[in-house]
Design goal:
This protein is α/β, with parallel strands linked by helices. Helix content is 38%, strand content 24%.
């Protein structure tokens, strides 16, 4: 039995129910991710391979469809017109599993939310004013890295007269140039690869370079070089905490280069924001963060390959606007956003979180 709904009907349901993702797979009904959990929709009818192909064809250009048929994997993004004249942005991925077609769609808000709306630490706003160096937003897939980066980009857009070039795969948030000139390049459409675009980006007179994701040695090396040559580089990385982001960058390089990379990174790193999205008790989600800034002590640890010592610096540096994930979870508990059980589930070290909840004073909480 064929599934009769179109992809447009399902995308409308994503918007109506404020879901973050839509999943399509053979042998199951369509599913929405709402506040982190998956929910089947559309009744008992399971999707077939033909159903998914029809839906994907509705949103892919002929060029993108040919690319998918050749490569069997495809990242893409598109603007979806909502009945009534409004529009929404979606990021999609098509792939095969056990020989059958599957797809995932993520809704991207059309309005870039501010730091205040996202409840991000005020200290991150200062990154928008930096003239050079590299700032990382890290975390697992679906943790809101792109949203945080977009807030930072919009802060630059409204406060600085500068030239911003983004390199994304695919383009997610769309920016309208305000004080800044923002030019967005999509891999596969405007450039062949991150590496190709980064080789030439310095000839395009940028002040700020935003790289959607650092995936490989070539991209990471080019990002560090751009930061060394006096540009502000903003990018994302998949790492399980702020400190390990440093090790991840260094470990990408061959052993004979790693000491040199540590020296470079100790000079150009501005900071790291690791984050995760956590369901709230009353519905919705909030972001919990771990913020590390490259203080002289942190730079020294990077240079000497003693990154394990950065964790203790992070734990004792609230006066320098830094905090660990467990400290931020404790703040969310104290402020009534999370229960202690919820916080424990997301804690990096549950025993450490328990200690913080017992000892945390109001004065310390205000500094987080």
């Amino acid at each position: 039995m064929a599934y009769e709904q179109s992809i447009h009907t399902l995308l409308n349901e994503v918007i109506r129910r404020n879901a973050s993702d839509l999943h399509l797979g053979v042998g199951i009904p369509p599913a929405l991710r709402i506040d982190g959990d998956l929910h089947y929709i559309g009744g008992p009818v399971n999707l077939t391979n033909e159903d998914i192909r029809r839906m994907v064809t509705e949103v892919l250009t002929r060029q993108k469809l040919a690319q998918f048929e050749e490569e069997w994997e495809l990242d893409f993004s598109f603007t979806f017109k909502i009945p009534g004249g409004d529009s929404a942005r979606f990021r999609g991925n098509c792939f095969f599993e056990r020989g059958s077609l599957a797809a995932a769609f993520r809704m991207i808000p059309t309005q870039v939310r501010s730091f205040q709306q996202l409840m991000l630490p005020k200290s991150l706003e200062e990154m928008a004013g930096k003239q050079r160096g590299i700032f990382l937003v890290t975390g697992p897939t679906g943790s809101g890295k792109s949203t945080t980066l977009a807030a930072l980009m919009q802060q630059i857009n409204t406060t600085r007269r500068c030239h911003v070039i983004t390199i994304e795969d695919p383009i997610e948030y769309l920016f309208k140039s305000e004080k800044a000139i923002i030019q967005q390049r999509e891999v596969g459409l405007d450039t062949r690869s991150f590496g190709n675009s980064l080789k030439r980006v310095l000839r395009q007179d940028p002040d700020v370079i935003m790289i959607g994701e650092m995936r490989d040695l070539e991209t990471i090396s080019s990002a560090i070089t751009a930061a060394e040559t006096g540009h502000l580089v903003l990018t994302t990385l998949h790492t399980p905490d702020a400190v390990q982001s440093i090790d991840r960058i260094v470990d990408v390089f061959p052993p004979y280069q790693q000491q040199q990379v540590r020296m470079q990174l100790s000079h150009v790193l501005i900071g790291v924001c690791y984050q995760q999205l956590i369901p709230l008790m009353g519905g919705g989600r909030t972001v919990a963060t771990e913020v590390l800034f490259a203080t002289p002590a942190v730079r020294n640890c990077i240079r000497e390959g003693k990154t394990a010592q950065i964790r203790s610096i992070l734990q004792t540096s609230s006066g320098q606007n830094m905090h660990t994930m467990d400290q931020d979870l404790a703040r969310l508990v104290w402020d009534g956003f999370l229960s202690s059980d919820q916080a424990m589930f997301y804690a990096m070290d549950p025993k450490e979180l328990e200690r913080i909840l017992m000892d945390m004073s109001p004065a310390v909480r205000r500094n987080l």
